[in-house]
Amino acid sequence: MKGVIADCLKNLVVNKFGQDKWAKSLEIAGLSKNATFLAGQDIPDETVLQLVDSVCKVLNITMLQAADAFGDYWVNDYAANIYKPFYKATTAKEFLLNMDEVHVNITKNIPNAHPPRFTYKWENDKTLVMHYKSSRGLIDFMVGLAKGVAKYYKENLKITKVGNDKVQIEFN
Predict the structure, then answer these.
(1) How far apart are the C-alpha atoms of 135 and 10, rounded to whole Å?
(2) Domain region containing 47
(3) Does residue 141 belong to any structural domain of this protein?
(4) N or C: which end of the chain has fewer CB within 10 A?
């Protein structure tokens, strides 16, 4: 996994809960309390997932709550600042339908980048099913990210995980 994910997690924890909670999370994960993560750095998936688990323990939250918090923070704070050119969409629908292309374009020149990929299927004119393709199995984080997109665009979307690789999104 790229360091940008761990860096975002760090920023979320430090900015919302304090540096002490982040240091404790690093310690529980077996990492140095001074560990830093560079955006393009390769970090083993297991290390990042252990760090997320440690954050859950320190903050006394579930993995689903962590996935929602991460998705909200990624979309509305972290990525909104560093990936501003990709926020040209005017609706949540446009943004979500562009996610696969964004992942392809943003990572094509980054060695060892393996972002999730998405395919789309319309159930009807208001219901989209996004198929999540990743060996990491982080579908709950995709749900959190979709919720973050809805918040960013101030839209009331119904977002439902409908399998280990599918999220249903109902637009108004």
Answers:
(1) 24
(2) 3-61
(3) yes
(4) C
